[in-house]
Every structure is written in structure tokens, then in C-alpha cells.
């Protein structure tokens, strides 16, 4: 273990504190805006600390169920939860056996298949939106959860497959041989051997997939048009679409929208770090 001098330790901690401030300052300012009045937000010079702290914006979003803002926000929250969780579960259901087969089963075409999967993930959304929109329109799926879930699965499956495959590669293949000799099939090996060992990678893949689906805006904007399927990014953008934007309401919606993914990231932070790191070194 390398011992650091007091100067080096001070530099490391100072850099960490500075990085934390840089990351937290925008969130802190968003929260200050959410509890500020319109007068405080439009006063020049800018009032960094509001004169009158009010949580009226939060009440209008989650407390006043008769208001249009609350209806739009709560429906969007429901839609985001349904779409993000469903797309994540379906993507992992496909990615786990796909990643295992790419990692374990023999064949010279595995690398090319993985490259094709990553290439589809790297394509810009605007290149795919026209055929996807035409397909969803012909199937009558526009403005539905199914449309967004299907599109998000097409984005998430290549990413989660690549992430899980790199972690499965780090698991010794010898662990698969004994169950095969005893008569176990591949699905049993995946369920009882591979996944328990790769649990951190599975948690990291699930968290990244949820975050990607939760924050996606482009497809959700084009494929939805009312509260039946609009997700939170689109609903928040709608709050700023009028002639006069209520920045306090928009900020409150942004703070509330971060609570579910931040809560999930907090409980899965160990899985995220170990899952992303374990695939970088083969054991």
C-alpha cells in the first residue's frame, strides 16, 4: 500500500471537495429556484437567497390534484416509471443470455456480432426516428407505452449486452464445466452460477438502463402527444413551452424527477462501482 504525504492527502481531498461542489452547485441552485418566488427569480441583481421561502411549487405538482400542472406531472411520473422499469426488465432478459453466449459459446463470429450490436447503439437517434415512427404509426402504437418500451429496448439491449459480456468474460470458464458434467443446462448455469457471481455487474447494468430510459427525451417527444404516454422529460419541457415560463415550477419538477433515479443509485452505488470495474480486469 502506497503511503501519501500530508501534502498529497490534502491535495486529493481538496480536489474531491472541489469536484463535489462543481457537481452539486447546479442541483443546489435548482432547489433554490424551486423555493423562490417569481419576484426573486426576476430581480436584478439576482437574489441568491430568496426573501420568502415557499414550497408552493411542490404543492402545485404533488398536492393539488385538481390543477393541470399536477395532473401532467403525476401522469408523466407514472409513465416514466412504467416505461423505464419495463424496458430495463425486458432488456436484461434478452441481454443476459446474449452476453453469456457471446462470452462462453465457441464461434468466430462472436466479435462481429458484438460489434454490430455496439454499432446500432452508437447510431444517432435522428437516423432511426423516421423508420421507427413509420413502423409505430402503421402498427397504431404511437402515444403508447409499448412504443417507447420497444424503442428503448432497441437502445438498451446492445449496451447491457456489452456491459454484461465484459463482466462474464472475467468469470473463469471452469466454473461452467462441473455443472455441465453433472447434467445442468445452460440456463441453469446462468441462473445458479453466473448471475450470483456477476450480481454487481447486473446491478450496474440495471441502474444504467433505468437512467438511460428515465432521461431519454428525443423519442419520447416524437412518439407521444398527451398525458397517456408522455414521460417526465417531455412534461417538464411542456412547462416551459408557454408564453411565460414558470421557472420555479420547472425547477421543482426537475428536483422531484431526480428523486427516483437518485434513490436507486444510492442503494446500488456499490454495485455500480464494482460492476463497472470488474469487467476491466480478467481473473
CATH topology of the largest domain: MetI-like fold
- Name the average pLDDT: 85
The major sheet is characterized as: none
In whole angstroms, the N-to-C terminal distance is 21 Å
Q: Which bin fits the share of residues in helices?
A: over 70%
Q: Structural class, from secondary structure content?
A: mainly alpha
CATH superfamily of the largest domain: MetI-like
Question: How is this structure best described in words?
Answer:
Keywords: Cell membrane, Membrane, Sugar transport, Transmembrane, Transmembrane helix, Transport. The protein has two domains: 1-54; 60-278, MetI-like fold (Orthogonal Bundle). It is built from 14 helices and no strands. The chain has helices at residues 6-34, 38-42, 56-62, 68-104, 110-122, 125-139, 145-168, 174-181, 186-197, 199-215, 218-223, 232-239, 247-267, 269-278. Helix 4 runs parallel beside helix 7 (145-168) and helix 4 (68-104) packs antiparallel against helix 10. It is globular and about 75 Å long. 29% of the residues are buried.
How are the elements arranged and paired?
Blueprint: H1 6-34, H2 38-42, H3 56-62, H4 68-104, H5 110-122, H6 125-139, H7 145-168, H8 174-181, H9 186-197, H10 199-215, H11 218-223, H12 232-239, H13 247-267, H14 269-278
Summed up, what is this model?
With 283 residues, this protein is mostly helical. 75% of the residues lie in helices and 0% in strands.
